[in-house]
Amino acid sequence: MPDLKEQTMEMNEIKVVPYTDEWASTFRQLAAIYQQHLEGLITGIEHVGSTSVPGLAAKPIIDIDLLIKDPSQLPLVVAGLEKLGYTWRGDLGIPGRDAFGRNADTTPDDGKGTAWMAHHLYVCLEGCISLKNHLQLRDFLRLHPEAAKQYGALKQDLSVRYPYDIDQYIEGKTAFITGILAQTGLQEDDLQDITARNKAGK
């Protein structure tokens, strides 16, 4: 029987798996819950990150951005998400993007006890750099399957080289990501900021 350290390492192992349609389906189900409970408070719900790109290998964790127009809406959104079982974690050093942790596998609570697959939930202010980063990278990869294939291969390689080192894994992807974002027109200052945040593990 593995000891506690081995169990912890296994839980934290970085696993990149082939794309599955289940990711898009799960996003739609989650989005319907957010729309129902946050109607009038959010202006959009975006499936971002690698699981949002058809055919792209990814860690099986869905990234979701909820959009708000004004910072004054955040407290009401926080209250609504807390009722669904999320905990507000603040911006974690990234202005305009607030992160939310799940209190249980059944978060968000849909009243049926559904156990959801792992996901990261953020509330983003419209126009913030983090949202631009997410959307521009996603849209580029959706339009350029060859780049998505290269990105998937890079992530699989990094997951083998650094299976328990998320910081090295993230840093190893940074040059590829910023190279794409530069092609989408993101400014040099923003690219440098993204590089610095990735090195800091944010």
Description:
The chain has 202 residues and is α+β, with helices and mostly antiparallel strands. The protein has 7 helices and 5 strands; from the N terminus they run H-H-E-E-H-E-E-E-H-H-H-H. Helix 4 (129-143) crosses helix 5 (145-161), helix 5 packs antiparallel against helix 6 (166-183) and helix 6 runs antiparallel to helix 7 (188-199). The longest helix is centred in the C-terminal third of the chain and has 18 residues, at 166-183. The model is unreliable at 1-10 (pLDDT under 50).
Main attributes of the structure:
202 residues; alpha+beta; 5-stranded mixed sheet; 7 helices; disordered N terminus
| Poorly predicted ranges | 1-10
Distance between the ends:
34 Å
Please report which band the strand proportion falls in: under 5%, 5-15%, 15-25%, 25-35%, 35-45% or over 45%. 5-15%
What level of helicity do the residues show?
40-55%
**Count of runs of 4 or more consecutive helical residues:** 7
Shape: globular
Strands, count: 5
Given the helix and strand composition, which structural class is it? Answer: alpha+beta
Q: Major beta sheet, specifics?
A: 5 strands, mixed
Task: Evaluate the radius of gyration.
Answer: 17 Å
> Within the largest sheet, what's the order of strands?
1-2-5-4-3
Compressed to H and E, one letter per element, the order equals: HHEEHEEEHHHH
- The mean pLDDT is 91
